Amino acid sequence: MKIILFANTFEYFSLRKNFLKKLHNDGFDIYLLGSSDKFKKNFEDLGFNTISLKIKRKSKNFLIELITLFKIYKVFKEIKPDVILNFTIKPVVYCGVLNYLFKLPVINTMTGVGPYFFNKGIFNLFMKILFKFSQKKILKVAFQNYDDKNFFIKNRLVNNDQSFVVPGFGVDKKYFNYCSYPKNKKITFLLIARMLWNKGIAEYVEAAEKVKRDMPNLDFQLLGPIDEDNEYVITKEQLDVWVNKNIINYLGFVDDVRPYILKSNCVVLPSYREGMPRSLLQACSMGRPIIASDVPGCRDIVENDMNGFVCKRQDSSDLANKMINFINLNQTEKEKMGLNGRELIENKFDENIIFESYLGKIKSIIKYL
After folding, report:
1. Which of 131, 204, 227, 229 makes a 20 to 30 Å CA pair with 196?
2. Are 293 and 183 in contact (CB under 8 A)?
3. Per-residue pLDDT tens digits for 63-93
């Protein structure tokens, strides 16, 4: 059986290697489609078929998009896949439009609700109409949490019959193994994300500044890449301002976040909205308490006083209070929160549980067609 996985870049697939291996072990001949980058060769070395297709994330040029659609059609016609899995917004829309001309065996996955669906303006209205049109004939659309699914159904962007929820791609609990809670005297808070305003980084910095007034011997870390192509990017210059004021430590981007989670006392994500936040899953898997905002995606993972604390959205004062609440816990209470988070991963977010669920949908699509 042939399966195409289509995303903006091959970097996206680097987060899905275990899922790809599972597909391969289940007998699928895998084709990866996306814009060429440094990750492409890694998949070729693993024996996967790779196809480069230049996708401009910010392009609004109708002619360029039409040419891209034709190239995608040629790829599909040549490979004749049994099923196509699309990730990220442009592939999701591209295949939805093509589905009006050709009956494609498609599962679209929405990894979150982007600004197109909330911001006002003619272009955003056009994008909503285009998305609704593109998904009308798609057999299945996956969401990573029920809030997102209900939002899309309520706004008539998809219908209930084609929608289902798979909580992200889970976490590899062996790779992100449980580690005993640190006994370091200097408490370290860690935020792992792309450096974007809508990840709640400004609120994190403001909260850090407030807490450090009375407790200066704390370490507030930021870890993640600067996504210069994103309209919500936080520049290196802005990060340097916070670092020079001794509010936070910016650690840059790393391929392996485990050593940083290992040394942290608490992982924080005051995001404005998420699909299924990977950093929180990883932190829980390694036995670290978390603090996260009461928003879709985050609220699926954090339970107040159980494995961490819930803070209000875009409220640095409330975030600071929750940080202080955490600091005031004793060692045993912090360790218990970490153990509760690990138990949550084992029972609900283990990647093998989620892979089986996803494979069930894939095989039902093939059978249906």
Report:
1. 131
2. no
3. 888 889 999 999 999 999 999 999 988 999 9
Any idea which residue has 């305003």 for tokens? 197
Q: What is the signed CA dihedral for 262, 264, 265, 266, rounded to 10 degrees?
A: -110
Measured CA to CA, the distance from residue 244 to residue 320 in angstroms comes to: 21
Contact in structure between 235 and 196 (CB atoms under 8 Å)? no
H helices of 184-330, in order, are: 201-214, 236-244, 258-263, 278-285, 316-327
Whole-angstrom Cα Rg for the chain? 21
> For the chain, where are the alpha helices, taking DSSP H only?
10-13, 17-25, 40-45, 62-79, 89-98, 122-135, 146-154, 201-214, 236-244, 258-263, 278-285, 316-327, 331-344, 351-368
Bridge partners of 158, per DSSP, are none
* H helix or E strand, kind and range, residue 269: strand 266-269
- Residue 256 CA, chain-centre distance (Å), reads 16
31-40 per-position pLDDT tens digit: 999 998 889 9
Residue with tokens 């994190």: 204
Would you say 257 and 192 are in contact if contact means Cβ atoms under 8 Å apart?
yes
- Find how far residue 229's CA is from the centre of its chain: 17
